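Could you help me review a protein record that somebody else here produced? Do not assume that whoever made the record got everything right. The record follows directly below this note.
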Amino acid sequence: MAPNRLLRAAWFLLVGWWLTPVVLFVAWLLHLPVVTIPLGVKLVNQVPRVLTLKPPIEVHGLRDPDGRPAGRSGDQYPLLVRAVWFIFVGSWLSLVWVLVASVLAISIVGLPVSLWLLNRLPFVLSLYRY
């Protein structure tokens, strides 16, 4: 069951706003040695949950037009495509994405856009649909 909006807002105000940059810093440190890249990607994929307790799509009970639960692993891009994207685009684009989101988060007006950007970070990094 997904947390209600009030709980998610309280989490963001008390924990998510400061814990997310820590998680992202650790994730990018894990991207330095090749053997720990999967752990770093896994941490980045959890950013929506760390930021606002946003559950994965399948928790919401959403369904595709064919009746299958949305967000299953079959809906992801193939691993090879995701790996190539990560190496050539996602690794640097996700850093720019986070920097833009951080600058926008400084102002009240930019905060909603910042949250939107950070919730899409897993897709920008590795084409992972959260």
Remarks:
- The radius of gyration is 15 Å.
- The chain has one domain: 5-126.
- DSSP finds six helices and no strands in the chain.
- The helical segments are 5-30, 37-45, 47-52, 79-105, 111-119, 121-126.
